[in-house]
Amino acid sequence: MKMKRMFASPKCLVSCVVALGLLSSAISAEPFSGGDIKKGDLEIKITNTGVLETINYKGKKIIANSGICTTGSAKDEWKPWVPQAWGKEMKMESEDTPEALTFTAKGILKSKELEGTSSFNVKTTIDASGKIRLACSVETDTAGLWKRCGSGFRLDTSIIGVPKYSSDGGEQKQVPEVKKSRNLVQGASTIEIEGTDCIIKFTFEGIKAYLFDNRKENSSLLLLEFNNSPAEIVDERGGKKYGSSYTVTIEVKDKPAK
User: Fold this and answer.
1) Quick one: which of 66, 83, 161, 177 has the fewest CB in 10 Å?
2) Per-residue pLDDT for 232 more than 80?
3) For residues 144 and 230, what is the distance between their CA atoms, to the nearest angstrom?
4) Domains in the chain, please, with CATH?
5) CB count, 10 Å around CB of 247?
6) Is the pLDDT of residue 100 over 90?
7) Is residue 198 helix, strand or coil?
8) How much is the average pLDDT of 153-172?
């Protein structure tokens, strides 16, 4: 009786190793410097600090953004403002497939007005199905260095139309036609914007969002802002840091035909 071979032949093993090597190299992270990215119906301009500067859907700019930021200090409630666009010592890597682009942006936030620094880490996934997910964190060794961290999106009603909106699954309301500074949503976990052609849903975890009508005589913008106060973070050795982490998911789809 012949014994069955329990191991693959050397030739087969070599083939498997080569195949695994090719697969590994295909999905490994590579240096990333931003640029214009297209996934499905989404076209996104990414800066060299990892900010999603503009988000287009089917050729229309639906969202503008300035990235993660810190605001305030021990001396002032709102100043200084230190955005991701000013990030120093940047390191960015990406993994790109036909289905999605995932990239991380790490760097340092530093204001000339303050002694301390903060480190930030933003992992962004842009999915061809129309979904964007941002996982963000900011940390500092300096207690009281900043009052809040977060970000915001600008939605131009001259492009998306004067929309309807709802929050946390509640009643849908119409943004008034008359331009006026007003609060529309306070402290929500989900906000849905229904424009002329598309619906944009924002979902927030670990942070609350606010929608403001900022339309004036020379402006047609709605502002969607979200921020957190720093929390104390104690490691296993008792060391302390101060920071915040949260995620934001953006889903864009066509408005159903009536």
Assistant:
1) 177
2) yes
3) 8
4) 30-254 (2.70.98.10)
5) 15
6) yes
7) strand
8) 97
How many secondary structure helices (H) and strands (E) does the chain include?
2, 21
**CA dihedral over 80, 84, 86, 89, signed as positive or negative:** positive
Virtual CA dihedral for 145, 147, 149, 153, nearest 10 degrees? -140
Q: What percent of the chain has pLDDT over 90?
A: 82
Q: Report the SS3 class of residue 98.
A: coil
Closest CA to 250 of 192, 211, 197, 208: 192
Would you say 106 and 95 are in contact if contact means Cβ atoms under 8 Å apart?
Answer: no
- R_g (Cα) of the chain, nearest Å: 22
Q: Which amino acid is at 244?
A: S
Please list, in sequence order, all residues whose beta carbon lies within 8 angstroms of the beta carbon of residue 213, skipping any fewer than 6 positions away. 175, 176, 179, 180, 181, 182, 183, 184, 222
SS3 101: strand
Q: Kindly tell me if the per-residue pLDDT of 224 is higher than 60.
A: yes
Residue with tokens 């840091």: 241
In this structure, are residues 253 and 194 in contact, taking their beta carbons and an 8 Å threshold?
A: no
pLDDT digits (tens, 9 = 90+) for 87-96: 999 999 999 9
Q: How many CB atoms lie within 10 A of CB 16?
A: 11
The owner of tokens 């991701």 is: 84
Residues belonging to the chain: 258
Q: With bands split at pLDDT 50, 70 and 90, how would you rate the model's confidence at 45?
A: very high
Q: How confident is the model at residue 235 (pLDDT cuts 50, 70, 90)?
A: confident
E strands present in 32-167:
35-39, 42-46, 52-57, 60-65, 69-71, 81-83, 88-96, 100-110, 117-127, 131-140, 148-156, 164-167
